[in-house]
Amino acid sequence: MKLKKYYKIKIKKIKKFQRNNNGNIFIGITAILLISFLILSVFILNFTIENEKENINSIENDQFEYIIQDYKRNIPIVEKEAIKELSEEVITKKTPLFDSKVEIKKLSNEKLKQLNIEYLKNYNIQINSSLTSIENTSDPFDIRLKTYVSIVKNGKDNNRESSNIKEEKFYENIEENDINIEGLKDPIPFLKCGNDWSFSYNNTTIFYGESLAKYLEDKEIENSSAYINSTTPLIIKKCPYDPYKHHGDANTMKICRDTGYFHESADGACYICRLEGKSGCNHYGFETFINPQSTNKTNLTAACGSDHVIFGENTYPGIECIYYSYNGLNEILFLDKNGHRVKYGMNT
Ligand SMILES: [Zn+2]
Ligand SMILES: [Zn+2]
Question: Which ligand gives the minimal distance to the CA of 273?
Answer without folding.
Answer: 2
